[in-house]
Amino acid sequence: MQSLNEQAQRLMERAVANSAGRSAETIYAGAHLRQTVIALKGGSTLAEHDNPGEATLLVLRGQVRLRSGTTSTHGATGDLLVIPQARHSLEAVEDAAVLLTVVPR
Prior knowledge:
Helices cover 13% and strands 55% of the residues. The protein is mainly beta. The chain has a five-stranded antiparallel β-sheet with strand order 1-2-9-4-7. It has a four-stranded antiparallel β-sheet with strand order 3-8-5-6, with no helix packed on it. The mean pLDDT is 95.
């Protein structure tokens, strides 16, 4: 068993200390499913990138903005965001941690 709260806290401390403002760690990698906790310092972003497969983001703490094309979705602690099947980016509106769940293509 793992505590996502403890994981998020540890990664947030690393993100704040990191010049890129982010830190991530895969917590589960199975045959068909991958889960990664990502911490982002407020104002930092994951630049636009391709969708890795069917994916969701669970906001563990803070606030984020998921952008794809002209669409923008705000997420706060406890929100579940479905990642669009298109190029997208993620911005931390404030210090934030998310659980990325992916079923790769």
